Amino acid sequence: MILCDIGNTNATFFDGRKIWNLSIDEFNTYEPKEKIYYINVNEKVAQKLSNPLFIDIEPYIKLNSTYIGLGVDRAAACYAINNGLIVDAGSAITLDLMANGCHIGGFIMPGITTTLSSLKNISPRLDIPLNSQVDLECLPQRTQDAISYGVIKPIVNLINDFASGKSIYFTGGDGEFLSRFFSQSLYDRMLIFRGMQRAINENKEILC
Amino acid sequence: MILCDIGNTNATFFDGRKIWNLSIDEFNTYEPKEKIYYINVNEKVAQKLSNPLFIDIEPYIKLNSTYIGLGVDRAAACYAINNGLIVDAGSAITLDLMANGCHIGGFIMPGITTTLSSLKNISPRLDIPLNSQVDLECLPQRTQDAISYGVIKPIVNLINDFASGKSIYFTGGDGEFLSRFFSQSLYDRMLIFRGMQRAINENKEILC
To answer: Which of B2, B7, B26, B126 is 20 to 30 Å apart from A185, CA to CA?
Structure first.
């Protein structure tokens, strides 16, 4: 069984064993040879998905939530977790809180790469690579640290505020890096796929 | 006496009474008729500043600091304050801590408008105006609030962490808006000019 999570920049596949990526342009020329169970947040691939081998599992992710307009990728990641804070750190970072299988709410911030690019666009003086080793306990004393601190510290602080002792589940491209700042954390590259798999398992008679 | 603070997007003038702006393009065609005491962080205006009516006061801002590469606009704002947290909220937001006339350190984050644009560039689904009234005490339940919360909350949290009882001096385009979230805060549109004025007063015999 092949699962596929179609995002803004990539389509990520999982066959139960390995994970691989296609860019959105590559995805738009990709011809499936077997059923692909997918979720999608990208309007640019709508035509491609009319192929009947693509099966949308969004309707089967029955997340208990009062949130209006929750992206299906966030819903899928949350669907894999009963209790805890879910942080999906990609081009955007989403934080969502789950308690006893209910989605309590969440919010969206720009991701690390997005934040660095936005600073670069303000001034060439701010076009400086991240110092991933910056000390978050000391006030910066040079521009590279001032930027690195200003990128990482607000994210880490806010996650800390929300976690308050709960387990933190990281996923997404920068999830592993961010997870290092927290003791009660787990990095799970497959989190979205686990939620998708749960939805499929709950609807085997319809989907398989 | 006319003071001028040349930034990345605007040149801001102050004549001791009123403040006005020119875009950088406008500034590059502007012909001064009297002495203009300026500070500048923008490399695009270097040629214009060769006119001898423009007087650079950067060398006279003698801020006590070990920070390497502090922008002169940040130095000028800090030079106006002996004790407290200085927040300049424009296209970038800078936070700097002053204690007993010494600059302790600081850092740089993208500003509110910059952050909103960076989200918009990720996906059209994130192209949503700020809800400036978003409740920062409740987890968001819809996309507009999720974005507004994710833009404002990290900034407010981080300022709170650093202020820890100290006075907070806001300046810059979003300074007034952000100052509303803090009781021990003051919005001073003229903060950079006050620092420039101090430097001029201390060097009257050379500059005037």
So the answer is: B126
